[in-house]
Amino acid sequence: MGLPEPPALGASALPAGTYAGRTVFVTGGGTGLGRAIALEFARLGANLVVASRKEEHLAAARETLAETGAKVRTVSCDIREPEQITAAFDAAVESFGPPDVLINNAAANFPVPAEEMSPNAWRTVVDITLNGTYFCAREFARRHLAAGTPGSIVNIGASYAWTGGPGFAHSAAAKAGVKNMVETLAVEWGPYGIQVNGLVPGLFPHEDMTADIKGNLAGTHDKDPCQPAMRVGRLRELGWAATFLASPYARFVSGHTLVVDGANWQRRGLVNPPVVTVRQQMGKGPFVLP
Ligand SMILES: CCCCCCCCC/C=C/C(=O)SCCNC(=O)CCNC(=O)[C@H](O)C(C)(C)COP(=O)(O)OP(=O)(O)OC[C@H]1O[C@@H](n2cnc3c(N)ncnc32)[C@H](O)[C@@H]1OP(=O)(O)O
Ligand SMILES: NC(=O)C1=CN([C@@H]2O[C@H](COP(=O)(O)OP(=O)(O)OC[C@H]3O[C@@H](n4cnc5c(N)ncnc54)[C@H](OP(=O)(O)O)[C@@H]3O)[C@@H](O)[C@H]2O)C=CC1
């Protein structure tokens, strides 16, 4: 049987208008989980700012969010570049005033055996996932500290921050940094009224997943029976968790990372399924030095 299905898309645990007059800045909000998160904030009355690199993703955000009647500003931004983040926040202020909430969702990832990863591949994933997350948090907090206003940050993580992630050494290490940063920044900025939390999705397959990740996922057997919940996550479940964490109803929750994965990451035993190396999983032969 597994865990029951959630309420239908369009339902909400929070009162209508919880985010009326508030502005939410979502990085990578044009695809997958970021777009699903932006949608739930929009349904609760928020103005949305969506920042990412590709115009087609920004267009997708505008199209999805338009259905809610929310006001939306999209801005092209590579979160590896602090000056581009400053410009994106300036654009947000120009449209709506300072963002009240930052959802640090943008990240980079591809499966690769650790021994094959190039230095630039490692740097790229860490630069986007860890450094970019910090640069966005820094920009958001500096503006609030200077203005004396409260705010809320939610960093999207991954459960291999705790467990390690074979085939994803770069992303797992970066996400461990993201989780640790939540704990540091919540203490540093709490006195100024800034909440900082983490939100970790379990397996949430979606159409926008990159070809690399889809390929790896396709190579695994049935997804649902491999989860204690007997099902994968529904995108709206992550959106609901994000809107709660950043809401007035969770003001005393800070420095916490909430895992939304139907207990999958706790599924450990002394006897686990047979080990399949990352090379085998990816259909690669023995490693040979180039
Ligand atoms: C089991 C179930 C699982 C299920 C898996 C479940 C997911 C677990 C949780 C985590 C999920 C996520 O984070 S999901 C988020 C995934 N989404 C994304 O990654 C979207 C954004 N990604 C991108 O833009 C690109 O993929 C990325 C490469 C990261 C950045 O693009 P750039 O144009 O900046 O970089 P590039 O110049 O193309 O590449 C930089 C370097 O990386 C190398 N590189 C790029 N792709 C590579 C690849 N596939 N394998 C090796 N190396 C690669 C290049 O060769 C370069 O190194 P050199 O050749 O040496 O110069
Ligand atoms: N889907 C899942 O099952 C899981 C996802 N996660 C996490 O959830 C979050 C969303 O993942 P998901 O929706 O699946 O992935 P997607 O690949 O759909 O989204 C990644 C987003 O990040 C943006 N992005 C990537 N690089 C940059 C950059 N340098 N600057 C600005 N934006 C960038 C992309 O937009 P653009 O290309 O336009 O820049 C894209 O919208 C990530 O943090 C991921 O690690 C964690 C565990 C599992």
Automatic annotation (TrEMBL):
GO terms for molecular function: trans-2-enoyl-CoA reductase (NADPH) activity. Its EC number is 1.3.1.38. Residues 22-181 form the Ketoreductase domain. Pathway: Lipid metabolism. The keyword DNA damage does not apply. SMART domains: PKS_KR. It catalyses: (2E)-tetradecenoyl-CoA + NADPH + H(+) = tetradecanoyl-CoA + NADP(+); (2E)-decenoyl-CoA + NADPH + H(+) = decanoyl-CoA + NADP(+); (2E)-octenoyl-CoA + NADPH + H(+) = octanoyl-CoA + NADP(+); (2E)-dodecenoyl-CoA + NADPH + H(+) = dodecanoyl-CoA + NADP(+). PANTHER family: PEROXISOMAL TRANS-2-ENOYL-COA REDUCTASE. Interacts with PEX5, probably required to target it into peroxisomes. Participates in chain elongation of fatty acids. Catalyzes the reduction of trans-2-enoyl-CoAs of varying chain lengths from 6:1 to 16:1, having maximum activity with 10:1 CoA. Has no 2,4-dienoyl-CoA reductase activity. This is Peroxisomal trans-2-enoyl-CoA reductase. It comes from Embleya scabrispora.
